[in-house]
Amino acid sequence: MVNQASNYLTVGFCNAFFNRFEDVSLITGSIHIQEEELDEAIKVTFINRWVERPAHKKIWAYLLGCWKIFWLLKTKFKKHEVFFVSIPPMAYLLNIILPNKFSMVIWDVFPDAFKITGMKESHPVYRIWKNLNKKSFKKSYKLFTIGENMSEALSQYVDKDKILIQPIWSIFQENNKVNKHENPFIQKNNLQGKFVIQYSGNIGLSHNVEHLVELAELMRNDEGIIFQIIGRGPRVPFLKKMVSEKQLPNCHFLPFQTDDMFPFSLSAADIGVVILDEKTSKGSVPSKSYNLMSYGIPSLYLASNDSELHIYSKKYQHAECFESEELGRARDFILSLIHDKEKWNLYSANAIKASRFFKRENADLFIQKYLAD
Fold first, then answer.
1. What's the mean per-residue pLDDT of the chain?
2. How many CB atoms lie within 10 A of CB 83?
3. Among 52, 55, 232, 356, which is 20 to 30 Å from 202 by CA?
4. Which residues of 342-355 are buried (b: 16+ CB within 10 A; e: fewer)?
5. Which residues fall within 8 angstroms of residue 115, CB to CB, at 6 or more apart?
């Protein structure tokens, strides 16, 4: 198993593989334990940690990580099968030059993701990575992605018949949402009696959180509504300046919450917001989508109509998906959930039903498909 920044998904994969294989090793820079512990019998080899910012240190961490992964697979793990997860985003390309049986799960499609930076498909980096993808994916033993539209995005690089679709899962396996009257996060942040519209997660280039600020501006005169932005990333200073210039009293910022506080902060949301840049939303699904489902929280998706999120909203009826020019309709959706409790309850119940398709058992389904001929 290879992931420079291992989270609950990597831990789940490791444990699921360990149920079927005698020897499982993890190459990683860090392990973030959430809910599920890593089996003590799994051997961990640490490399350099992933660095989020500044950009030049992030790129260096990726490149150094790739070199260390290459060397370990060339020497210590030269007889191992390899299952690549997520980071560094270019590390799966090592299978072009390594003889290991190499599989990968893709939930952020590169080089497509570079489009958010304004990179054109004619750019040398884009063209080279695209050509390497074709070689890497063709050579892979098993190639996984997590949804139909993401499979479509990958099909430009490899025959679609080779792509295995298998959804991932939420951190939370049960609906343990905390009642607002007993929620310390509500009390600490003076949210009593407020309708909370919450974005919680990374605030990077692919997350156009300014659309949430624009929504807050549209609804600045609607009393009792709080737009809450929780997280970190390179665009936070820009967003705070935007809120300050617009003098929005209904838009608040908080840092990432601790693991202990996270269930309480999530429970505070009346509507959860998931945002993807429309240039790349076909090739990504943030894990927060599944956490919101698990707690029965209706969702507002801001993404393109060809995104996996749009498919989810239509399939499960737990959310509505709007494009960036449809913020007026997004406002109307929010108001409808505020003023129609039965409608909110319906979306909440549908979210819980949808969460049944994104449970920890999905890790075992990955392994079944991995072992199938």
1. 93
2. 25
3. 356
4. eebeebbebbbebb
5. 277, 279, 280
DSSP state of 354: H
Q: Is the pLDDT of residue 283 over 80?
A: no
Phi, psi for residue 314 in degrees, rounded to 5: -75, -35
pLDDT tens, position by position, 201-249: 888 765 689 999 999 999 999 989 999 999 988 889 999 999 999 999 9
> Of all helices (H) and strands (E), which one includes residue 57?
helix 55-74
**pTM score, whole prediction:** 0.89
Burial level of 169, CB count in 10 A (0-12/13-18/19+)?
Answer: buried
Given a contact cutoff of 8 angstroms between Cβ atoms, the answer to whether 271 and 292 are in contact is: no
| CB-based contacts of 188-192 (< 8 A; 24+ apart in sequence) | 189/252, 189/254, 189/268, 191/226, 191/268
Of 273, 279, 342, which is closest to residue 313 (Cα–Cα)? 273
Task: Map out the domains of the chain as residue ranges.
Answer: 5-169+359-371, 180-355
pLDDT (tens digit, 9 = 90+) per residue, 31-42?
Answer: 999 889 999 999
pLDDT at 252: 95
The SS3 assignment for 227 reads: strand
Query: Which long-range contacts does 43-51 make (Cβ < 8 Å, 24+ apart)?
Result: 45/72, 45/76, 47/4, 47/72, 48/4, 49/4, 49/5, 50/4, 50/5, 50/87, 50/88
Q: Predicted confidence band at 284 (pLDDT cuts at 50, 70, 90)?
A: confident
Q: What is the pLDDT of residues 112-132, one digit of tens each?
A: 878 877 889 999 999 999 999
**For residue 193, is it left (φ>0), alpha (ψ between -120 and 50) or beta?**
left
Q: Is 146:167 a contact under the CB 8 Å cutoff?
A: yes
| Fold adopted by 5-169+359-371 | Rossmann fold (3.40.50)
Topology of 180-355 in CATH?
Answer: Rossmann fold (3.40.50)
Q: How many helices (H) and strands (E) would you count in the chain? A: 13, 14
d(CA 5, CA 21): 23
**Where does residue 19 rank: exposed (0-12), middle (13-18), buried (19+ CB within 10 A)?**
exposed
Give strand pairing partners of 198: 228, 272
Cβ within 8 Å of residue 203, ≥6 positions away: 209, 229, 231, 232, 233, 234, 235, 236, 239
